[in-house]
Amino acid sequence: MWIIEPLHDIEAFLSTVAAARRATPDRHANLRYFSHPEWTRVVWTQREAERGSRFIGLVARDPAGDVAGWWPLVLSKRSFGWRLQNLGQEICDYAEPHVAIGTDTPSLLSEMLRTVETLAPHFTFAQFANFQPAGSLALTDQPVAEKLAGLGGSWRVGPARSDLRLDAGRYGNDWQTFLAERISARQRKNMRHEWNVLCRHGTISIERPDRAALAALKPAYLDWYRYGQDDATRRQKLGIWWSVFLAMEDEAIAPSVLRVDGEPASIVIAFPRQRDLDLFSLVFDPRFAAESVGKLHLQRVIRNWMEMGGGTFHFLVGSEDYKAHLSNDAVKVRSLYFYHRRNIQALLRAMKPRGEPLRKLLEAKPSN
Q1: Which CATH class is domain 3-160+333-363?
Q2: Domain with CATH 3.40.630.30 in the chain
Q3: Does pLDDT of 21 surpass 50?
Q4: Given a cut of 50, is residue 145 above it in pLDDT?
Q5: How many Cβ atoms from other residues are within 10 Å of residue 36's Cβ?
Q6: pTM of the predicted model, to two decimals?
Q7: Cα separation, 189 vs 184, whole angstroms
Q8: DSSP secondary structure letter of residue 236
Q9: The CATH fold of domain 174-310
Q10: What percentage of the chain reaches a pLDDT higher than 70?
């Protein structure tokens, strides 16, 4: 039913994707940022190519020959061989293929995973982080075991993580209804108090910056971002992100800045797709940390999106309090792994979980 073509030339892949988006833009209106051609181009140029990775882009066509989806992958060089993974996987929360609207998603994704198996001679093992293919494979304990067993090979599924969401339709896209039904009276009082405290610092404004104004926010963003890696790795990652932000079409990115007396105090980066909004990053001036400026800004972004007819707001992977506070739904995401037996490294990695009890027994100190 599906024709899956692996393309090793990134320019051929990008040209195919661009042609598909021009020919049937409505079918690809659900495109997420990590499958966007600008993300692919920037991350390949500034990260993967410099690391010596090898590009493999899967393009799926339906029986009529129309592009029904794609998946930008790379062979990433590791000390023990090659790992097949999503392009830019280390700097992105997700690793899902793009599947066009109106497509039989379970069938297409299964065929893509079968194609991954055929690529086994080229890699030691495959890893796809936080895989949540729009409910298609139903990545819960029992269904995933059954579905992946049908694909053959040595597929494994990692522990579940929560992808929190806010379904605005449950409240008729009315912010006050959302507050009344989801947020306690005490929490609503705290929200008003925090906003009033912030307003004491000066005039508060929230705006969607144009391209030039967004570029001017880069130094503040780089200074305020404090998550994860060491300084050098963080600088490289943030540099790539900002190249993506500035390369995206205006309709493909939704930045927001909260200002206090005209100076930036909080920055939210999100990516729209149809009526949904995907949160990407939130940073804020630490001088306003006590006033919860980042949380207050995010609340205003969600309110504006909801009142403009938003569908589902997607938070980043993770169950932090500020996300749980505003969400009303959660979907489990899991990492997928594929091991084969073509070399000793893959064999040892595949056998590691089974050998864990023996290792612990051998390492246990003898009792006196």
Answers
A1: alpha beta
A2: 174-310
A3: yes
A4: no
A5: 24
A6: 0.86
A7: 9
A8: H
A9: Aminopeptidase (3.40.630)
A10: 85
